[in-house]
Design goal:
- The strands form two sheets. Strands 2, 4, 5, 6, 9, 10 and 11 form a seven-stranded mixed β-sheet that branches.
- The protein is 3% helix and 46% strand.
- It has one helix and eleven strands; from the N terminus they run βββββββββαββ.
- The radius of gyration is 14 Å and the shape is globular.
């Protein structure tokens, strides 16, 4: 059974940083694309970032470019989302997601759903 476990959410001040982690169990990230999504109350879920473990290509939502960095550590089977310069528009529940087969980054971000989702981790930005 595949499970994605997120951690690292919490409270940060505006301009502060948090690092989210996503570690799957029962699944190896080596050959798949994995992404971070977020959903704020009353808003639709949006793709924040994703990384292809095939060629390392990445995608970032325009509003997070230059502030967020996605990375992976295949030895730890973990994907990270480093979030710097957090802004009032960033608070949301953040989810990681992946699929049981490979998709390019371009296709991954267009998909309406994915095979595996984490339980979500809350990110709050407040002074």
């Amino acid at each position: 059974q595949v499970q994605l476990v997120e951690s690292g959410g919490g409270l940060a001040q505006p301009g502060g940083s948090l690092r989210l982690s996503c570690t799957p169990s029962g699944f190896t990230l080596d050959y798949y694309t994995i992404g971070w999504f977020r959903q704020a109350p009353g808003k639709e879920r949006e793709a924040v970032s994703c990384i292809s473990n095939n060629d390392g290509s990445t995608y970032y939502l325009d509003s997070v470019k230059g502030r967020f960095t996605i990375s992976r550590d295949n030895a730890k089977n973990t994907v990270y989302l480093q979030m710097n310069d957090l802004k009032p528009e960033d608070p949301a529940v953040y989810y990681c997601a992946t699929d049981s087969r490979f998709f390019t980054v371009d296709n991954f971000i267009k998909m309406r759903t994915h095979d595996y989702w984490g339980q979500g981790t809350q990110v709050t930005v407040s002074s």
